[in-house]
Amino acid sequence: MDIQLLIPGVIFGLSIGSIFFLMAIGLSLCFGLMRIISLDQLLYYSIGAYITYSLTLATGDVWLGILGGCGVAGVAALGVERLIFRRIYERELTFSMITSFGILIGGVGVIKYFWGVVPRPVPIPMMIQLDIAGTEVPVYRLIVIAIAGLVYGGIWLFLNRTIIGKAIRAGIENVEHVEGLGINVARLFTITFVIAGALSGLAGGLHAPLIMVEPSMGLEVLAFVFMVVIIGGLGSIKGTLVSAFIVGQVISLGSLIYAPLAQMAPFAIMLLILLIKPTGLYGSALLKR
Amino acid sequence: MMNAIRWWWGLLLAFSLLAASRAFLPLPFVNEVVIFSIYTMGCSFLLGRVGFISFGQPAYLAAGAYGTAFYLFYFGTDPYVGILVGILSGLAVSGIVGPLFVRLRSDYFALVNLALAVIFYYLMQKVLADITKGDNGLWFLTRMSSTPVLDISTPSHFFVFAFLVALAVWAFYKYLDDSIFGACCLATKINEDKLEFLGYSNYRVRLLAFIIANTTTALAGALYAVYLGFVSPEITSPHRAPDPVVVTILGGTGTLYGPLVGAFAYTGMKDVISKLIGNWELFIGFLLVFIMLAGEKGIWGTLQPRLEKLFSGRKDRTAAGDGAEARR
Question: What angle do CA B70, B28, B226 make, to 5 degrees?
Answer without folding.
Answer: 15
